[in-house]
Design brief:
Layout: H1 9-18, E1 23-29, H2 31-34, E2 43-49, H3 54-75, E3 80-84, H4 93-100, E4 102-106
Parallel strand pairs: 2-3
Antiparallel strand pairs: 1-2, 1-4
Length: 114
């Protein structure tokens, strides 16, 4: 499905994620994953983190999220919006990822979440 993004962006994003020890999975979701985007649509990318303590993963997200989003904006597009998706507690992002998300990266040796 056409996502309106430059060829090779998925490989670049997956390579970026592979360099982050705590990122377990990376997904494209939202209008670009559904193929209903416009030129002004943002690029919604969700990630899951390794670890099972909800407080720890939330704290890690708070510390890293802004830096990670800036890094992905340089790699993919300034329109990237990065979202943490916690399969156990997230009532907004994770259901969207489950409904129409496209897997970009999965850490070897980790079972898929959710």
């Amino acid at each position: 499905m056409n996502d309106g993004l430059p060829e090779g962006w998925r490989e670049s994003a997956a390579n970026w994620a592979s360099g982050k020890n705590r990122i377990c999975e990376l997904f494209l979701f939202g209008s670009r994953a559904k193929g209903v985007f416009t030129d002004k649509s943002d690029i919604d990318i969700a990630y899951t983190l390794t670890g099972c303590d909800a407080g720890e993963t939330l704290a890690y997200d708070i510390i890293e999220a802004t830096t990670w989003e800036s890094e992905l904006q340089l790699i993919v597009s300034p329109m990237v919006q990065l979202h943490m998706a916690d399969p156990l507690t997230d009532a907004i992002v994770w259901p969207a990822v489950r409904a129409h998300g496209q897997l970009i990266y999965s850490k070897l040796g980790q079972l898929p979440l959710g």
